[in-house]
Design brief:
12 strands, 4-stranded antiparallel sheet, alpha+beta, single chain
Length: 273
């Protein structure tokens, strides 16, 4: 591989275009014959006979069609689209690759978003039909699935965190026990946020312990005691964004809560902006 130590301004300006190309490509269907061909090419490189390729509309359909999925290998190529964009860009600005290896990798990434396989059989999912992202290119959709497949299966996600349908489509139908029992802190925060912070704190009869203004982050912080739990609520006046996170029950001040949430870095706050 040739060494290339720096890019020209014109080359740097091309980078976003490559990433956008591959993001868009993730919902573009590929011909079945291309899917079969690239699987065969990979198996040939591994010095195996080409497997029988079963093409399905979603990863869950591929798993259901597979006779023994627990004993098949699993590979999610869709997550490597960003690498494909980087290699494609690099090859076009003068970095030298083995042309066959590069073409194989790019075609594999384009055609095989998900595969279950052994030496003789491969169960492949077609690409999703729609993807939704937030401004930070995280999977995100507050009105439906963030990742949709042709057979109706998909992924529900809020700001890159995988959640369930209820949290997205009917968050007010959650009950307090669901929120209390949630073990994942990110999902719990999203549950409370979607349910409504004010409604949640009112229903658990929260008592305000302390209210301060954090001049470092420009947020208003409120420490609540409720239902054998303590919560730090951060509000950004300029954006109206709110965050509510659980802290230990012996926490007595907003500063102590922030120290706990930032793993001891007390002035590096969980920001609401």
């Amino acid at each position: 591989m040739a060494q290339k130590t720096e890019l020209t301004p014109e080359e740097e300006a091309q980078i976003p275009g490559y990433f956008n190309k591959y993001i868009k490509m993730q919902t573009e269907g590929q011909p079945d014959e291309d899917i079969v061909e690239i699987v065969g090419r990979i198996w040939q490189k591994l010095e195996h006979d080409a497997p029988k390729v079963h093409i399905m509309d979603s990863p869950i359909a591929a798993k259901e069609a597979c006779p023994d999925p627990d004993n098949f290998h699993v590979y999610w190529s869709i997550w490597f689209s960003s690498y494909a964009a980087m290699y494609d860009f690099a090859s076009n600005v003068g970095v030298e690759f083995d042309k066959d290896d590069l073409d194989t990798f790019l075609k594999w990434t384009r055609c095989i978003p998900f595969i279950l396989f052994n030496e003789t059989d491969a169960y492949v999912s077609r690409r999703p039909t729609a993807l939704h992202f937030n401004e930070d290119n995280q999977l995100h959709n507050e009105e439906g699935m963030a990742c949709n497949f042709a057979d109706g299966w998909g992924v529900w996600s809020i700001n890159g965190v995988q959640v369930d349908e209820q949290i997205v489509m009917d968050p007010k139908s959650q009950n307090l026990q669901q929120i209390r029992d949630e073990q994942n802190e990110e999902i719990k925060r999203i549950r409370i946020e979607r349910y409504g912070f004010e409604s949640y704190l009112a229903e658990i009869d929260a008592k305000l312990i302390e209210r301060v203004r954090n001049d470092i982050e420009g947020t208003i912080e409120l420490l609540y005691d409720a239902d054998d739990m303590r919560f730090l609520m951060c509000i950004c006046p300029s954006t109206a964004k709110e965050f509510c996170l659980e802290v230990p029950t012996d926490t007595m001040t907003c500063k102590a809560a922030q120290s706990y949430l930032s793993a001891g870095l007390s002035d590096r706050i969980i920001s609401a902006s």
